[in-house]
Design brief:
The chain has about 300 residues and is of the alpha/beta class. The chain is about 25% helix and about 30% strand. The chain has a 5-stranded mixed β-sheet with strand order 8-1-2-10-9, with no helix packed on it. It holds the Pfam family CheW.
């Protein structure tokens, strides 16, 4: 199980493929779109005074990448019950970077609809949560991890920073209304802060693409001119219930709202995956955490 580039789903189907892996007999998942390859462990070079979740660095075909222990990052106590011979390195790419995750075993690949993935309950869905979704209709419960947050916990500089917006200068955009679909409470808060600083103060946030689409369609059904009510849509890709690619496709297929510009703001924007957003009709695509680039694109597309 090494290269997964050949199994990418058709864009906009609201489905994803996840790779299931184990850590101390707990089952977790990662979106195939984040995975470059899965390899057997390679030699690791330790780094003095490194973050405790970093095992060190390794070299793969000339590239040097950090190796993260998911066991440590998730706070799972080592119980010694796994077979060391099954350990794997998951080489991932997102947020314009490559990182290697050490796991105890990689088991299978699942194809599932986003509407089958449940949002974490309030009992454990807090700012410190590293879970973005729960899949419980398979052989066992699988937790989808927030790999972006795992990295930001190690290196806060990898996240969104309000300060970057100051370089763009003052602007007046408060009359422009934006719909934003983002499942992470922390990122919704950061987006609200940064876009408000950029002058975009009239933003309606939704936890997933389904709720955002329902709201937009409700405005049309009420007889309102959608282009007076909403000037632009921003969407993440990975969201329970309805992902950003499917949301974009549904907007573009509906002649009553098809002229709404949609900007995809996601950690999954890479040169290899950019074509998926183009296929569903996105006006632009920006990789997290490039918030200043997002504001520039909003300025270009908003009416």
């Amino acid at each position: 199980m090494e290269d997964h580039s050949g199994i990418l789903l058709e864009s906009g189907t609201n489905e994803l493929e996840i790779i299931e892996f184990e850590i101390n007999n707990n089952n977790f998942g990662i979106n195939v779109l984040k995975v470059k390859e899965i390899i057997n462990p390679l030699p690791i070079t330790s780094i003095p005074h490194a973050h405790p979740n970093i095992l060190g660095i390794m070299q793969l075909r000339g590239e040097v990448m950090p190796v993260v222990s998911l066991e440590k990052a998730l706070g799972l106590a080592q119980n010694g019950s796994y077979d060391p011979a099954k350990e794997k390195f998951i080489v991932a790419e997102f947020n314009l970077m490559k990182v290697v995750f050490h796991v105890h075993n990689v088991t299978k690949i699942h194809r599932i609809s986003w509407n089958k993935i449940e949002k974490p309950t309030e009992l454990y869905d807090v700012d410190s949560s590293q879970i973005i979704g729960v899949i419980n209709n398979l052989d066992s419960m699988i937790l989808l991890l927030d790999f972006e947050k795992i990295i930001v916990d190690i290196n806060p500089e990898a996240g969104i920073h309000v300060g970057k917006i100051k370089k763009l200068g003052e602007r007046e955009r408060s009359s422009k209304r934006i719909i934003a679909a983002e499942d992470s409470p922390l990122l919704r808060k950061l987006l609200n802060e940064t876009l408000s600083m950029a002058g975009y103060e009239n933003i309606e946030f939704f936890e997933n693409g389904r709720d955002a689409l329902s709201y937009i369609e409700s405005l049309v059904n009420e007889g309102k001119n959608i282009y007076d009510e909403v000037q632009l849509v921003i969407t993440d890709i990975e969201m329970p219930q309805m992902d950003g690619h499917h949301l974009t496709k549904r907007i573009k297929e509906n002649h009553r709202i098809s002229k709404l510009p949609v900007i995809i703001f996601s950690s999954l924007i890479t040169e290899d995956l950019r074509h998926k957003g183009e296929q569903v009709g996105a006006a632009d695509q920006v990789s997290k955490p490039e918030i200043n680039e997002l504001v520039i694109k909003i300025d270009q597309h908003i009416l």
